[in-house]
Write a structure and sequence with these properties.
Elements (H helix, E strand, L loop, with lengths): L1 H45 L1 H10 L8 H21 L3 H18 L1 H4 L3 H20 L6 H9 L5
Length: 155
């Protein structure tokens, strides 16, 4: 029985360390995806005339006029990543970034279908965004801090 207790204690310590690692992984995923989207948004605002030209001539965003699509896409690439990194409204941010990602693929499909690495990157972002969307932000987030401080169990 003593040997069994030692194994259980070892497994419990391993579980604790893996849970701590999962919290760091949650944060790393949020930062990694957010960085790519945010940098794309910065590129768009650096040269707005080129951005507008791309949305008019190259990107084929369904339904929206090019100017509105450019504003919405750029806003999404700059706003949602900040929320995602902070872990504030994390599921909302992950959903918003997922919409931006899907719209990018749809509107640029005529090019992406021939560029496997670019399409693979969008697929990777989509999969990584599923983690905070379904799993939540993890403990290293403002959402978790707010929940601990003011959530139902705090009172």
């Amino acid at each position: 029985m003593n040997r069994f207790s030692s194994v259980v204690a070892l497994l419990d310590r391993a579980r604790i360390w893996l849970n701590r690692g999962a919290n760091v992984l949650d944060l790393a995923i949020r930062v990694l995806v957010a960085r790519d989207f945010f940098m794309a948004g910065l590129t768009k605002i650096r040269d707005w005339d080129t951005t507008l030209a791309l949305f008019q001539d190259e990107y084929h965003v369904p339904v929206l006029p090019p100017e509105l699509a450019a504003i919405g896409g750029t806003f999404g690439e700059l706003f949602f990543p900040v929320l995602l990194v902070l872990g504030l409204g994390t599921r909302f941010a992950a959903f918003g970034m997922s919409v931006v990602n899907v719209m990018a693929v749809v509107s640029y499909w005529h090019v992406l279908m021939d560029l496997e690495p670019a399409l693979a990157m969008h697929t990777t972002w989509a999969i990584l965004l599923l983690v905070p969307l379904f799993h939540g932000p993890g403990k290293l987030s403002l959402d978790a801090w707010i929940w601990r401080r003011w959530g139902p169990a705090a009172g």
